User: Fold this.
Amino acid sequence: MWFKTRVGIYSVLEPLEIRVAKYPKAKVPSLSVFVRSLSDPSFDYKGIFGKFNAHGRTIHLAQFLMSDSSGAKIAECMREIEQAIATETKPPRPAA
Assistant:
């Protein structure tokens, strides 16, 4: 699956999941729409050294400032992603 972002085009191999993360304590509180690979290994550790977890490769697709309108913007972003999946959108061909 291909995703066009401001900085370029990403190809994401399936299986994957599309998620939203909330960063309320960041310098600039924000929300992020990202893709996480489900085929990469996950690792959860809880022991004498504390807790650690690592999950498959992630690619952040869009970031939104936290506001009253964030939910509507994220919903629109998810609709665009859904449409790209449904129509099997391909990347544009490079100019010759």
User: Anything to note?
Assistant: The first strand starts at residue 2 and ends at 5.
